[in-house]
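Why should sequence recovery work at all? Because a backbone constrains its sequence more than one might expect. Tight turns favour small or flexible residues, buried strands favour hydrophobic ones, and helices have their own preferences. The token representation captures these environments compactly. In the example below, the structure is given first.
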């Protein structure tokens, strides 16, 4: 099988981002300068069974918005590149993940049609340097460049850390399923249109 890898570099006046992605596994190394965001991206790599290296330098003297959003843009681009024509993948993935009292549900389709439906009411404004609204901004950016249809629902939760972490772990599990190779597909593209 051809290696399903990508390396993306994105440099703007606000951020400098590099992402290396291997859909079939590897080490996980994350450094964005935003500790809680690093922790969440680590969950995506480890629970998604991905090889993932992300290094972001951003204008954190202003706030974390550009850092988080541009990391999402670059990760979505890397995902799209690593998937290539998407031949043989399962395409769909879903997960229901508990994190103590929190419960998150994620369903995604590697459809080529970017759409985020985000229904997660978290009771705090921030976790450390991380504004909880940035979770949605990150996902929106990743969906847009990755060509994903993504539904996120927080079904229960009180502790903001648990709520956001459950969402990222559910994303990881759903993504792992969706990008995995379906041995019954025979290398075909999982669409009646013949393309995704």
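From this structural description, the recovered sequence reads:
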């Amino acid at each position: 099988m051809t290696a399903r890898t990508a390396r993306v570099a994105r440099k703007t006046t606000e951020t400098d981002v590099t992402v290396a992605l291997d859909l079939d596994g590897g080490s996980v190394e994350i450094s964005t300068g935003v500790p809680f965001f690093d922790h969440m991206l680590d969950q995506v790599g480890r629970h998604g069974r991905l090889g993932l290296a992300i290094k972001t330098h951003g204008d954190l003297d202003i706030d974390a918005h550009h850092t988080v959003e541009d990391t999402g843009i670059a990760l979505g681009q890397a995902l799209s590149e690593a998937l290539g024509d998407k031949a043989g993948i399962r395409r769909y993935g879903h997960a229901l993940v508990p994190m103590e009292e929190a419960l998150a549900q994620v369903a995604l389709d590697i459809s080529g049609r970017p759409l985020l439906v985000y229904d997660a009411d978290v009771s705090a404004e921030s976790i450390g340097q991380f504004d909880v609204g940035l979770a949605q901004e990150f996902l929106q950016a990743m969906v847009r460049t990755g060509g994903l249809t993504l539904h996120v629902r927080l079904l229960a939760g009180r502790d903001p850390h648990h709520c956001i972490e459950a969402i990222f772990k559910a994303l990881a599990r759903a993504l792992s399923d969706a990008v995995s190779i379906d041995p019954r597909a025979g290398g075909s593209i999982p669409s009646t249109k013949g393309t995704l």
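A few observations help interpret the result. Residues 122 and 160 are 6 Å apart (CA to CA).
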